[in-house]
Amino acid sequence: MSMANTSAISMTNSESPSQVFATLRFAGDELDPDEISHVVRQEPTWAYRKGQRYQPGPRSPDITGKTGVWYFSTKRNVPSKDLRDHLDALASLVFPRADAGLSGERSIGSSCAPSAA
């Protein structure tokens, strides 16, 4: 009887570029994604209400949200590889600068959100 070799070696290329990003998430049964967008003056990367049907991925079937979610990622919105820049971008959403004013535009990059079902 022959024995199968079950050991394996996994290697990672340490020269591959690292990916840096940060996320800001709000969740709750009564969450209104439009209200969060209005308060932080930023469109979400992803958002849905509790009970809303959405597609979590390109090959995934539609599912129903168990709670409301508003999510913003700096992944495609902040080009820096310095984590501090990504965290500063999120902090600017939650703690706007006084000199930005209420009518100032603070949107970070471009983003998309699933349409309401």
Structure, described:
15% of the residues are buried. The protein is an alpha+beta fold and 117 residues long. Helix content is 17%, strand content 16%. The chain starts with 22 loop residues before the first strand and ends in a 23-residue tail after the last helix. It has a domain of 74 residues. The C terminus is likely disordered. The strands form two sheets. A three-stranded antiparallel beta sheet has the order 1-5-2, with helices on one face. It is built from two helices and five strands. Strand 3 and strand 4 form a beta hairpin.
Which tags fit this structure?
alpha+beta; two-stranded antiparallel sheet; 5 strands; 16% strand; flat
Shape: flat
Rg over CA atoms, rounded to whole Å, is 20 Å
| Portion in beta strands | 15-25%
Roughly how many Å apart are the termini?
A: 59 Å
Helical content class = 10-25%
Largest sheet: 3 strands, antiparallel
Structural class: alpha+beta
Strands, total number: 5
What topology, given as strand order, has the largest sheet?
A: 1-5-2
- H-E string: EHEEEEH
Ranges where pLDDT stays below 50 over 5 or more residues in a row are: 110-117
Mean pLDDT: 82
Count of discrete alpha- or pi-helical segments spanning 4 or more residues: 2
